[in-house]
Amino acid sequence: MPKAQEFYTSPDVMPVLSPGKHRSPRQGACFMEFASYLAGERWSDHPPCTHPLLAFLARGVNDFSSDESRSRLVPLIPSVIGLNGTDPKIDLVIALRAASLAIPVASESRQRALATGLYSCRQMLHDLGLDSDIVLTRRVENALAQAPSAREWAREFEALRGKHRRSLSFTRAGRAIVSTAVLGIAQACISDADARLHELLALSIEDTITVLAPVSESSAVRAHAVV
Question: Phi and psi at residue 7, in whole multiples of 5°?
Fold first, then answer.
């Protein structure tokens, strides 16, 4: 039985966004802890109300945003509540968005890792039968085109792996891509890292909503038919 203080369903204390993990709202909150608070769920930075990879991205963006800019993430918090599902396309669109936004500004070593991740995204598109999805396939190709040297390195690396490629779930690959992308943006030699991190999270939320929308619409149609 969870302790009573692990639940915060009344707005008697409004948390303040800060990096890291926190024991209660009075100590502050990361993005996802704040989401659990608003959702009336158990205080956690891994609340069930949000897709795991989107939550992973949100925690990273929260932690690597500057103190001055972190508060600008607050308006995005309500939009991740209830944003969850089992469609493997969710992992794909989040990872692809992260890689495509980070690869132009990341260091060379991270560009190579992201390019390899983009090849994994391309394979995932094929595995899911989405080769005809023009938006996503173009996003892969456009992202790779922004780092030609990394693209060639990743192409050769993929060729070397060939048939010896290990079969890993894309969930694991997605986390690696997102982690590399967040660090790549946060530690890049650019002046707008905070803005880019904010954009990454905002667009990833929109991408996830787009994937889940057909499911919600289908449910609404079925419910209407029953009535």
Answer: -115, 140
Q: How many structural domains compose the chain?
A: 2
Residue by residue, pLDDT tens for the chain (227 residues) are: 334 334 444 445 677 888 888 887 788 899 999 999 999 999 999 999 999 999 999 999 999 999 999 999 999 999 999 999 999 999 999 999 999 999 999 999 999 999 999 999 999 999 999 999 999 999 999 999 999 999 999 999 888 876 555 555 688 899 999 999 999 999 999 999 999 999 999 999 999 999 998 755 444 334 334 44
- pTM, two decimals, is 0.85
CA angle 113, 208, 100 (to 5 degrees): 30
Host H or E run for residue 42:
none
Same domain, 64 and 172: no
* Domain region containing 124: 89-212
